[in-house]
Amino acid sequence: MGTKEFGSNACLYSFPSLPQTIFLLYLSPSGGGNQTKNLSFSPFSLANPYTRNPIFKPRTTSLTLSRRRRIANLISGPLSWKMDRLDGPARLMIVSDLDHTMVDHHDPENTSLLRFNALWESLYRHDSLLVFSTGRSPTLYKQLRSEKPMLTPDITITSVGTEITYGDSMVPDEGWVNVLNQKWDRNVVLEETAKLPQLKFQSETEQRPHKVSFYVEKGHAQDVISSLSDRFEKRGLDVKIIYSGGIDLDILPQGAGKGQALAYLLKKFKEGGKPPINTLVCGDSGNDAELFSIPDVYGVMVSNAQEELLQWHAEHAKENTKIIHASNRCAAGIIEAIGHFGLGPNTSPRDSSDILVSKLDNFNPSHEVVKFYITYERWRRAEAEKSDLLIQSLKHICHPTGIAVHPSGVEHSLHECIDTFGPHYGDKQGKQFRVWLDRVFTSQIGSTSWLVKFDKWELTDDGRHCSLTTILLNSEPGNPGAFSLLHVHQTWLEGFAARCQNDWIF
Ligand code: GLC
Ligand code: MG
């Protein structure tokens, strides 16, 4: 059994025979004389994301309730998303469209998406909510996630606001299904649309319980829409017809759509006593228009927005100063809007070159970990300056007795890992190589000790790989830039192990 003290009141136990398990032992800082009586055991398994629950209940309690709750959230949080994931109201709720808004299909490097990811995970994930709202069905949404370096949102709204799901496992909101079932008759929609030859059915995956979708040439769109409206009215069916991207025509229940889905969510948060402090909606095309008509939200139409959205804005929302047409494309436009409306910091860690220098007033472990991996990416892409100084500063933030457990199960000292890392300078130059962190959750577990847990992704010419990573680190009181990594523990996410294990350094 290995033991390591870290912080003034915590101790780390690891068992070589159980390589995937570590135990944390807390000593109460207010031990009242006899500290051993106040030992608190907080063991948890790191092996499998689906069994991240404590194996034993704490014997005695030396942690405050809120801290215990935060640790419990840290361990199980990313898996079982709940409306009350956050202690208080969300500081910022971003509700963003995906195609040509969050995701720039004209940028194979995904530069602005990666900038947004780093900003979100380092400074927003812990107290804010990320909502993706897309026209895609769950099937095409999952396909996009497998192609692009996208984060895991808290809430996913798919099929043009007709399906709302929570967390990574995408648990459906049954209440929303019931709302949409009112006054909807899919068969009438199919009967009437069959009479118009200008309508071409989209693929089977895009036909959903509350959404029927077609392609219509731009030139025919107006005529088709008014003819359809008349026909549905005659049949007594109140539906919503939305034209997007100059080609897609969606027919939904009148109460559906991206805007209505957002209104439903906001109402739910309000009823739970936690309406977001600020909400920013982001879009580029026709089906996003309704997002901008929800009261009190800020809105950004990205610079590359479609004519149909700009026209809607000119006709319906020109006077609304809470909506901007950004000067930047896609996710860069979202970052621009955060700054424009003063919704919080909008400098991504990817925006600075002297990345290891801390510029924050308070120690923020998520920020440090995100910066560490950007440095790692830049070193291997030969985008950082090749200097011994950088290797020295990396060593400096690794505790001399610190250990890294590689996802293969092999252990090395952290200093050894940095020595291995050095010669990898530029080994990914000219190749596909991107690194990003998802679902970064931090918890302070002692007066100077922190646990950071996240999914670490690498995109290489060999495919994409991911390890579930836990890092223990110590901060230095009064010195926000100073900290040391004590323990790094990684396990492969099932189905995403790297084929060449030596290529995965941290
Ligand atoms: C996405 C969907 C499609 C829909 C379009 C516009 O592309 O896959 O079905 O028509 O968004 O909402
Ligand atoms: Mg779009």
TrEMBL record:
Keyword Hydrolase: yes
Sequence ranges assigned to domain Sucrose-phosphatase C-terminal in this UniProt record: 365-494
Cofactor: Mg(2+)
Span of domain Sucrose phosphatase-like: 91-342
Source taxon at top rank: Eukaryota
Annotated EC: 3.1.3.24
Subunit composition and interactions: Homodimer.
Protein name per the record: sucrose-phosphate phosphatase
Lineage of producing organism: Eukaryota, Viridiplantae, Streptophyta, Embryophyta, Tracheophyta
